[in-house]
Specification:
Order of helices and strands: HHHEEEEHHHH
Helix content: 40-55%
Structural class: mainly alpha
Bound molecules: heme C
Shape: elongated
Number of domains: 1
Largest sheet: 2 strands, antiparallel
Strand order of the largest sheet: 1-2
Strand content: under 5%
Amino acid sequence: MANRVLMLFGLIACATAAMLMASTSGAQAPPSKADGLEAWEKAFEVFSHPRCVNCHVPEDNRPRWSGPSYGAKAQYHGMNIIADDTRKKAAGLPCTSCHGVSNLPFAKGAPGAPHWALAPVEMVWWAKSSRDICEQIKDPARNGDKSLDEVVEHVRSDDLVQWGWNPGPGREPAPYSSAELADFLRNWVNSGAPCPVAG
Ligand code: HEC
Ligand code: HEC
């Protein structure tokens, strides 16, 4: 009898030890707020890149031609392209009449990806600070009513986002990769999605 009780205790002790080991070795500590802010700043390097902000423009509805391939100074889209409020066409001419589903294979040729259009006006990132864009991305009223998980999924899989790393001859791709951007955002979300206090 005494032996059996001892054996039972032994079993319980082993099981408890195994559980403790599993929980300490398996679970990773969430990233700290400082790690989260660092991850956000890398994501901001992408969000503020010409390949992204040229479409995420303000109420003037004018796509931008900015970045080294367009010269030192940012310009408005040539040919007087000004989108209407749908942000998908200019003077009745759909953006997709020039912007096909893939890039034209020569410098200065129209870049292409499916559903080429300006981002909705509430998603304006042009000339915005790191803090502003950070607050916007967290605000469902200004991010297309997305959860943060859905934002991460969007940058991983959306065609227009992917185009930022395959922008066609002569244009500089966005920094990092879309997978790295998704990882930065994942770490940022896991750290509580902190935004910088200034800048
Ligand atoms: C050709 C124009 C275009 C380009 C270039 C573009 N976007 Fe967008 N973006 C859009 C449109 C349009 C939407 C609205 C959602 C949709 O229709 O896919 C959007 C929405 C988003 C959203 C979801 C909204 C939010 O605030 O969370 C994210 C994130 C995003 N874009 C990231 C990027 C990143 C990162 C880049 C650059 C690597 C980029 N986009 C380049 C047009 C563009
Ligand atoms: C008449 C043809 C034409 C129409 C219509 C047109 N575009 Fe363009 N777009 C171009 C060409 C060509 C380029 C590339 C210019 C270059 O590389 O020098 C370009 C470049 C761009 C760029 C720059 C991308 C980058 O980061 O390099 C954006 C953004 C853009 N267009 C958005 C739009 C939007 C949004 C619409 C619809 C409202 C539109 N375009 C309608 C021909 C057109």
